[in-house]
Amino acid sequence: MQKPSFLSKPMPPSPIKVAGPIRAGSYNLLTQGAAWKFSLLHDRDEDVLIWVTRGQGRVVINGVMRGISMNNALFVPSGTLFSLDVPSGVQALMVRSPAGLTPRMPHEPLLLRIRDSLAQAELTGIIDAMAREITQDRALLAEALEAQVRLISVWLYRQVQAGTADAPKETAGQRLVRRYAQAITRDYASARLMADYAEALDVTPTHLSRICRKFGGRTAADMLTERKLHAARSALERPHPPIQDIASALGFSSAAYFTRFVHNHTGQSPTALRADAQKNLRLPR
């Protein structure tokens, strides 16, 4: 019997369509020396996995500070306000993947304390394999990386089932901080002040600041400032749009006010930060 024509030769599969590239490898290399990209409170449109292999640091997730150390895995889903503070001697691996790439990925942040040596080796092996794929840039790279992300989602599920998640019961104060963090991710680009958020949460600005400092080490105003600053610095890494447009998009009343804001928190003007970013892009890697 003659084969149907569509079976006469293998057809190439359709390319995977994702929102952005998958990145994997050393945390220090992927951040490229720009510690602010993770040390400032921010949220991302991608999922982030941090696997600490040596040393210790601190993470703030939805306004609550936690310690993170060797053999800890931190998973932060897209849209979660967080920051990561790790000293220079800390060694960690990182995976950044588009949100929704696999439905098995958790929808809530996870901090896993992994004591089983086999589980430790499994995650390290997956991330190392991803880094090699990216370096070698072979055929079907996107498909290979997506398969590895799916393996990570299975690994995460198994670790949660094994009871490795460090998830203490949330207190009333932590719930308030989380609600504030979620409001920041929605509205940080508006002209709303911290007092406006407090009013919407039905608490006083003083109480909100005290609770935020207690659980996250930052005042409520600091949290909002950091999110705006991260957005500003991210926008200034690109040659466009004009600075006055960035200021308007982030809720500043004028470009001059935006310039003072950036200079007060970085010691540089927006123009200087943009010039430095473009110069770094031109440097050989």
From TrEMBL:
Enzyme class: transferase
Pfam families, A to Z: HTH_18
Domain of life of the organism encoding this protein: Bacteria
SUPFAM superfamilies for this protein: Homeodomain-like, Regulatory protein AraC
The enzyme's E.C. designation: 2.1.1.-
Keywords: DNA-binding, Methyltransferase, Transcription, Transcription regulation, Transferase
InterPro entries assigned to the protein according to its UniProt record, in alphabetical order: Homeodomain-like_sf, HTH-like, HTH_AraC
Protein name: Methylphosphotriester-DNA--protein-cysteine S-methyltransferase
PANTHER family per record: ARAC-FAMILY TRANSCRIPTIONAL REGULATOR (PTHR43280), TRANSCRIPTIONAL REGULATORY PROTEIN (PTHR43280:SF32)
MF (Gene Ontology): DNA-binding transcription factor activity; methyltransferase activity; sequence-specific DNA binding
Residue ranges constituting the HTH araC/xylS-type domain according to the UniProt record: 178-276
Keyword Transferase attached: yes
Organism: Tropicibacter naphthalenivorans
A biological process from GO: methylation
